[in-house]
Amino acid sequence: MTVRTHRGFTMVELMIALVLTLAVGGVAYQMLLRNSRVSRAQSEQIGVQDNVRSGALIITNELREVGYDVVTADATAELGYAPAAPTRTDLLAINPSYITYRATRGLGFVCQVTTAAPATVLVRRGSWQELRAPKTTDSLLLYVENQPNTANDDAWVHLGIVATGAQNCPVGGAGLAFQVAAPADGLNLTTALNAVDVGAPVRVTEVMRMEHYVDAADGQPYLGMRSISGGELTLRPVIGPLAANGGADPGLAFEFLDANNAATGVLANVRVIRVALRGVTDQAVYGRKAYEATVDTLGLTTRVALRNTLR
Amino acid sequence: MRISRVHGERGMALAVAIFALVVIGALVAGAFFAGNQEQRTARSSMYAAAAADAAEAGTAVVMADWDQFNLNTIPVGDSMTLPVTSLAGRAAYVPTVTRLNDELFLIRSVGTRTDYAGNVLAQRSVGLLARLSYVTATANAAVTVTKPIKFNGNAFQVIGNDSVPKGWGAEPDCKTGPNKAGVRSATTTGASSGDTDNLFGDPAQVANDPSVTSDFFNIFGDVTFDELKQNADIVIPYDTPQQPAPSLTAGPPQRCNVGDWNNWGEPRRAPDAYVNQCTGYFPIIYASGSSLKMSSGSRGQGLLLVEGDLEIVGGFEFSGLIVAKGGIKINGNGNKVTGALLAQDVAIDDENSISGNTTLQFSSCALNKAIKGSAFGEPLANRSWVQLY
What we know:
The complex is a heterodimer.
Chain A: H1 11-63, E1 68-70, H2 73-79, E2 87-89, E3 91-95, E4 98-114, E5 120-124, E6 129-130, E7 139-144, E8 155-168, E9 174-181, H3 189-194, E10 201-214, E11 221-227, E12 236-239, E13 252-257, E14 272-280, E15 285-286, E16 293-294, E17 297-305
Chain B: H1 13-64, H2 68-71, E1 79-81, E2 85-87, E3 91-99, E4 104-114, E5 120-133, E6 141-145, E7 149-151, E8 157-159, E9 181-185, E10 199-200, E11 205-206, H3 214-218, E12 219-220, E13 223-224, H4 225-230, E14 234-236, E15 284-287, E16 291-294, E17 298-306, E18 309-312, E19 316-324, E20 328-330, E21 333-343, E22 352-354, E23 357-362, H5 364-373, E24 376-379, E25 385-387
Parallel strand pairs in B: 6-9, 6-21, 7-22, 8-10, 8-23, 9-11, 14-15, 15-17, 16-18, 17-19, 18-20, 19-21, 20-22, 21-23
Antiparallel strand pairs in B: 1-3, 2-3, 3-4, 4-5, 5-24, 5-25, 12-13
């Protein structure tokens, strides 16, 4: 008997085909799944790396201009002014999980000083450098020369800013006017302003806080910042998510070192801040333990030499 | 039995394989892209760090090697951009020094990191606020000594009356002040009655002056003798005779050759023959040997610090301040020191003697010019470092 056409498969063929299809499909699925997990894990790890690296840059940029100034005995004699603490450091509070500090937001050079009310410090606009525009909640640090033949009586005086505005300098060029107020620590504003030379540097500063905190929106820990002098009450997330603090590998840990590289809690003695950041992935990822998805972490440590504390 | 040929099977293996390849390819491409982005980010961070380091190096180098001759003469409000300095690893810095007022400077340093073709990959700017540090003119006489001076002959003159050096009258801030004493001594001056005709000033001589202490010879306002030594432009480590004179670079244009340790600046002015390019050069000269002997035909200006004794044998012209830790011995003809001369006489065998045709003339103008001209920059004691944008 001659079979002309064979349509269909035998049961055996079907079974073999099914088994082979399942086997190939299973292998392909496993490959796809593993690739997908690896890809996602890589993506998450890259995100964490970006996070901690950005965090290290932000913290370094924020803190490296931190310093202190000293009102010397000669300056006290010239100004008739003795602040409660002659050494005024920009570090206002330090803790392993937070830091409160005075940050510079602008720098300029005096082109005119007016002692008559309203007392005004006029800064040449062309030389003005700023991270952001000055606000009345900021403070002004003004370099007072006193006697020109000695540096021993020079001082930075800290003034409040009452108002800012545009005003031309006496000799050409636009200026930035700061109406200033003396702090409530006995500084005679007129005496201080009279001792300022044209060309003296001026810094605009803001009191900031940088802290490890848990964000209410997603319950994750972040590095947050807020402007204390600006009246901000809640922290803004800057980088994260971070690991939780309190464990062996905290999400953010500050260590404060003195000139001998020893840990110190004395604000005026801090010369270097060691910052340890530990970021976590947004989602659990499969790592080497292919059967278990976990939140991956990555740590980075950086040291910030406080440039204005080194002398 | 014939084996039939099967036609028109409808399999999907190829489609599945292609789909799988596409999916895997997409995943690999995605991972590669993400990895590449991360690598670029890391590289950018590295370039930025290199640029920032270069910028910091720029401020440090300007401060460490403060160029009094060029920087101290920048007019207020003007800037001077220094040459580009290349560092290893395709990094470079360009410092610009701006004079803010008579005392203060801003050093802005721009650091860059470039690729092999010179394209800028990263750029950072930092600044440093600096202040001129200069000695305070504590000299209150033409000559100040601890021990008596042995005056010989009748040709010498010690004049405490303030005077502007010949030809210096046209220079800014050069005017006379109150007259000073001719000689001040912590003990006796050594002048006999026959010598008093050669001493002039208000008064001509002051003996047993309580202000002439060790500090008088070592602390000059903000700056000490040791700090001046460390900032010396010219160091003479040996005792062989010196014959300094102003010199010029080969040019063109010819400039004052501040690299020549035998060039101590030009104290002469018109109408005398003089080297104009070196009139603004007031170096700090430090002789570290046991004695400094000046040969005939020497001239200079600035601050001359002598660790041991100073011996002048004739034909020596100097404007500014001379401080000798040992004694002074001056003889020969044509010696003229305009400014002030201080001899501490620290050793037991130190002796001071002045003879020959010698003029020691107090001059606040010469002192101030030398002091301002030789001042060196130092970072502000507080808050000197600035982040620039």
